[in-house]
Design goal:
The strands form three sheets. The protein has an eight-stranded mixed beta sheet, with helices on both faces. It has an eight-stranded mixed beta sheet with strand order 13-15-18-17-16-19-20-14, with helices on one face. Strands 2-3-1-4 form a four-stranded antiparallel beta sheet. It folds into three domains: 2-107, Alpha-Beta Plaits (2-Layer Sandwich), CATH 3.30.70; 123-436, Zn peptidases (Aminopeptidase, 3-Layer(aba) Sandwich), CATH 3.40.630; 447-573, Immunoglobulin-like, CATH 2.60.40.10. It is of the alpha+beta class. It has 14 helices and 20 strands. α1 packs across α5, α8 packs across α14 and α12 packs across α14.
Length: 576
């Protein structure tokens, strides 16, 4: 009884924002009566022990260095952990924050956005935003329907939602074009993911003709965005539940904050469904948080995603587990999840490296450069825990697509202030790099980057006026840091093309000369005189690439070259 009283006292203290040091002095012991749940830290012995925790409990975060997992547990689960002779330590500050986040939803009175979290659009608002984007920019945006949710199928459209998205590309520019697919909110409670996907689409489209990289990407890459991949489950999460799964009610009658009915859509994919090399990668218990479903791709949401991937990506991988994808294969897929800041790449179903593991790690580390997140193979010891039937393993394993999971931020119901100040901008920068690498994701990320590019004189110039392009080519930007270390090589060449990337048939590329007379180092300055006399007036694109000593070209970076004396007032009207 005294332990329970101590628990209640400390929970009140946490709610009153007592410092974390003071809160750590609380007694161990479960609450009685229990609130909706509490956050605890539980130690695990090894990778196999962690797998057992992950499949039986709601694991929020894993620290492989200290071998501690952060869990959200009910009173019954706490008691079961103790009965297993585990040491369970309450995290009162995280518990108070979790309780406050759910209370914010219940007490909010706003008219737009998720209650208490106005920066995140609801399912209905997300779909309305997609529709509005397509209506405003018909030449750049096409709205699509890829399938239907479980509730929509079961009710023949009377309830539930369609799975909707957009295809972003300049339809006036012919293809073929490499494809980048972005998916959000497979797990319903992860608020940051759908909004990040929406903002990526909106930023690209609104920046067309204004930002050089956004302009060439929309001209020469096909970008697919599906922000709400689990809309039924998301609607439950919008009400303040820690809801993860879809809402399939066929196999479990329990209805709780996060457990209960539903299938985990990120354990339901048909590739390696229930074939993990560990015994505990997903659950056969219909009420478990990681329930894999009754058979592979049993859920309409999973079927829709897999069918869509097969439609937009060619199959470039053999049937064997060790068959590599050809180095020149195109296509990138990113699924957005939260939380535990990480960039994950296949495999998840085994600790063995994927046949393209080195190239996947290189691209993952380049994503991590922008977010500051470490990159690791999701199924390897020292990363998180093993998983099977996941979306990224399907994309890579079935089709050969370079597939990744971004774990964004530090909470499921991330505060708007944290999202706006720390998460969204770095994530959008990483996603922009993903689109740049979509042509050859197993090759381009190994090349150097264009760290800077300037024109002299800047701004508008008359046709025939001399213009000097100066760039910094850098192969060391990703050579160190918490996101991983990549080898740096000397710069061998720098080139540029006008209005189209070098891979487009008929595109002329022109060299830049080393400013020092010869390329020798891993960072190099290069320059070129741009011949403007034959260029049509208007806003033109210069796309610049650098090559390392191994012969690998990096992704392009673009800069605008503006020909003609056009007043700045009319700049937004100059559309290509």
């Amino acid at each position: 009884m005294l332990k329970r009283l101590a628990w209640l006292l400390c929970l009140v203290c946490a709610l009153l924002a007592v410092t974390s040091n003071e809160l750590q002095a609380m007694e161990e012991g479960p609450p009685d009566p229990a609130p909706r749940g509490v956050v605890v830290r539980v130690s695990f012995a090894d990778a196999q022990d962690l797998q057992q925790l992950a499949v039986r409990y709601d694991v929020w975060q894993v620290d492989p260095q200290t071998r501690q997992a952060t869990l959200w547990v009910t009173l019954a689960q706490w008691q079961r952990l103790v009965a297993e002779s585990r040491r369970v330590v309450l995290d009162p500050l995280a518990t108070a924050q979790a309780a406050a986040s759910q209370t914010a939803i219940q007490t909010a009175s706003q008219t737009a956005g998720i209650p208490g979290y106005s920066c995140y659009r609801t399912v209905e608002e997300s779909h309305a935003s997609l529709r509005a984007l397509a209506e405003l920019f018909p030449m750049l945006v096409r709205e699509i329907k890829i399938g239907e949710s479980w509730q929509y199928v079961r009710s023949t459209g009377q309830q539930g939602y369609e799975l909707r998205g957009v295809v972003l590309t300049n339809r006036a520019r012919p293809g073929p074009k490499p494809v980048f697919l972005l998916i959000g909110a497979i797990h319903a409670r992860e608020y940051t993911t759908a909004e990040t996907a929406l903002r990526f689409a909106e930023r690209l489209v609104h920046s067309y003709g204004v930002d050089a990289d956004a302009t060439w990407l929309l001209d020469h890459v096909e970008i697919h965005v599906i922000p709400q991949a689990n809309p039924d489950g998301r609607k439950r999460a919008e009400a303040g539940l820690w809801w993860r799964k879809n809402v399939n009610r066929d196999a479990c009658g329990v209805d709780s904050d996060s457990y209960g009915f539903g299938v985990d859509l990120n354990r339901n994919s048909s590739f390696k469904w229930n074939q993990c090399t560990s015994d505990f990668c997903s659950s056969s218990d219909p009420c478990a948080l990681t329930y894999r479903g009754p058979f592979p791709a049993s859920e309409p949401e999973t079927q829709a995603l897999e069918s869509y991937l097969r439609t937009i990506f060619p199959d470039r991988r053999g049937a064997g587990d060790n068959d590599p994808v050809p180095a020149d294969a195109s296509g990138v897929m990113v699924t957005l999840h939260s939380y535990s800041p990480l960039i994950l790449y296949p495999w998840g179903w085994t600790e063995a490296a994927a046949p393209n593991g080195d190239a996947l790690r290189t691209l993952a580390r380049k994503f991590g450069y922008y977010t500051g997140y470490p990159a690791c193979q999701s199924g390897a010891d020292g990363c998180i825990y093993m998983t099977d039937g996941t979306t990224d393993d399907f994309a890579y394993g079935e089709l050969g697509v370079a597939a990744f999971t971004f774990e964004l931020g530090w909470r499921f119901f991330e505060s708007c202030s944290t999202f706006e100040s720390l998460i969204v901008a770095p994530a959008l920068a990483s996603l922009t790099y993903a689109a740049k690498a979509a042509l050859r994701p197993y090759e381009l990320p190994s090349g150097p980057e264009i760290a800077s590019a300037t024109l002299e004189p800047p701004g508008w110039v008359a046709a025939g006026e001399p213009v000097t392009l100066t760039v910094t080519a850098d192969d060391t930007r990703f050579a160190s840091g918490g996101y991983g270390d990549e080898p740096a090589q000397p710069i061998q060449a720098v080139r540029y093309s006008i209005d189209a990337p070098s891979w487009v048939s008929g595109t002329l590329t022109l060299p830049l000369a080393p400013l020092a007379g010869v390329f020798t180092g891993t960072v190099a300055l290069a320059t070129a005189a741009i011949p403007t006399q034959g260029l049509t007036p208007g806003t033109r694109l210069l796309l610049i690439e650098a090559q390392d000593a191994g012969g690998t070209w990096g992704v392009p970076t673009a800069i605008f070259l503006q020909i003609g004396k056009i007043p700045p007032l009319y700049l937004p009207l100059v559309q290509r």
